[in-house]
């Protein structure tokens, strides 16, 4: 368990804050590409890569493990596109197939590793649900740097992303490579997933990408504002969830982050300024009163004319 006043905890908190912001920004891109569920498939597809990388190099170095996770996730994305383009199977079905097969294979490999003498000390189980307390300073530095790179790429290329999502034909007219932007988008998505699996876990990492943009959508119709809100919501969930998970011994970080993110979503669902249920109810009530008032005034006019 961390001492919440320790410098190590503060660095872990900073890294999960950056991870949450990066996840919110990347999640906004996935939301408007209507590919929110691909993050779920790729996060599960990353697990066998983690275990295989450990088996090959026999080290629990985050850089080595995320390289393995990244290769496995990219292979999963390639297979999803291959199945979609070469068969009659729909994209969501292909995602479900890859998710199940890769995650099942990862669990089998993880079970085999844990039965070996060195496997008991590997600590790879933390990659399933996430455990911030298992992170060392080098892990924190790696996560922070890569998350900052993801955030920077999205911010610098904001105009290009907007064209890529909403007007690809105009983007082509400006000589922007749609295929190149797709590859960068996939790189950002995979990078965000693999750097977060130790802190959040492969099972719940997708929630950190999916929930913040959905929550932000209840507050604004502006793409730019939505992206900023999504980043803020993701960062808040990452920071609060990490803090809560470090208050006890062996508490997984991922569930606390997701519960925090879910709480933000529920608040947005009810009180969001644009699509919140409470706001819409008040607007309907006001509209009904306005219509009733108009009908009453119209009836008075008719009676007066008679």
Q: What is the H-and-E element order?
A: HHHHHHHHHHHHHH
Please give the CATH class of the largest domain. Answer: Mainly Alpha
User: Which residues form runs of ≥5 with pLDDT under 50?
Assistant: none
Tally of helical runs = 14
CATH topology of the largest domain: ABC transporter involved in vitamin B12 uptake, BtuC
Q: How much is the average pLDDT?
A: 85
- Sheet of most strands: none
**Binned strand content:** under 5%
Indicate the CATH architecture of the largest domain: Orthogonal Bundle
How many β-strands, per DSSP? 0
Assembly state (oligomeric): single chain
Taken from the alpha-carbon principal axes, the silhouette is globular
Rg (C-alpha, Å): 23 Å
**Amino- and carboxy-terminal Cα gap:** 82 Å
CATH H level, superfamily name of the largest domain: ABC transporter involved in vitamin B12 uptake, BtuC
Could you say how many structural domains there are in total? Answer: 2
**Alpha-beta content class:** mainly alpha
* Helical proportion, percent range: over 70%
Could you characterize the architecture of this molecule?
By secondary structure, this protein is mainly α. The longest helix is centred in the C-terminal third of the chain and has 29 residues, at 277-305. Helix 4 crosses helix 10 and helix 11 (205-217) crosses helix 12. The mean pLDDT is 85. It is globular and about 85 Å long. It is built from 14 helices and no strands. It folds into 2 domains: 7-275, ABC transporter involved in vitamin B12 uptake, BtuC (Orthogonal Bundle); 278-306. It has helices at residues 7-32, 36-45, 47-57, 62-86, 91-114, 126-129, 137-156, 158-166, 168-173, 178-196, 205-217, 223-245, 253-271, 277-305.
